[in-house]
Specification:
- The protein has 160 residues and is mostly helical.
- Helix content is 38%, strand content 8%.
- The strands form two sheets. A two-stranded parallel ribbon has the order 1-2.
């Protein structure tokens, strides 16, 4: 699983997600984006959004190089990363997990995007009371978001 963090944050914010996954047979790879976290350069500055897309594609490619044949690679994107994943023309199973009371990303727009996806395998979870970072929200919401993620992985790891 490649974790792509949101704008203005860093991969360390997903430690709680990465730490839960090995018991499910999932390894996590969470690099910092260009000019975020421990990467070099002026914080958050890129010349063009395409740089983020290129970096994301490279991260997924690098994470997938050493995996055994037949093992799937999943992308977990947060906030601006969700937009990047969408822009990368979704053609695989998808699980949008949406904070229902998000003030940064319009939850209804996410739901409308989901409804228009022409995919056989798609699941949507909307977390009422969630403000933006579902994996770092209050204990009950965070626990439910992680359980939903784990269940989704469990249902997809054996499917080819």
């Amino acid at each position: 699983m490649v974790i792509a963090h949101g704008l203005g944050e860093h991969s360390g914010r997903y430690r709680n997600v990465v730490e839960r996954m090995p018991s499910k047979g999932i390894s996590g790879w969470a690099p910092d984006h260009r000019r975020h976290g421990q990467s070099e350069g002026k914080r958050g500055h890129v010349l063009n959004f395409v740089q983020y897309l290129s970096d994301l594609r490279l991260s997924v490619e690098l994470a997938g190089r050493d995996r055994p044949e037949g093992m799937k690679c999943f992308l977990l994107g947060h906030s601006m990363e969700t937009v990047q994943a969408q822009a990368s023309s979704l053609k695989d199973p998808t699980l949008p997990q949406v904070a229902g009371d998000d003030h940064l990303v319009n939850a209804r727009s996410s739901e409308q995007f989901f409804e228009k996806l022409d995919l056989k395998d798609k699941t949507l979870h909307v977390y009422d009371g969630g403000y933006h970072e579902i994996y770092n929200e209050g204990e009950d919401l965070r626990r439910q978001a992680l359980i939903d993620l784990e269940d989704w992985f469990e249902n997809h790891l054996g499917n080819e």
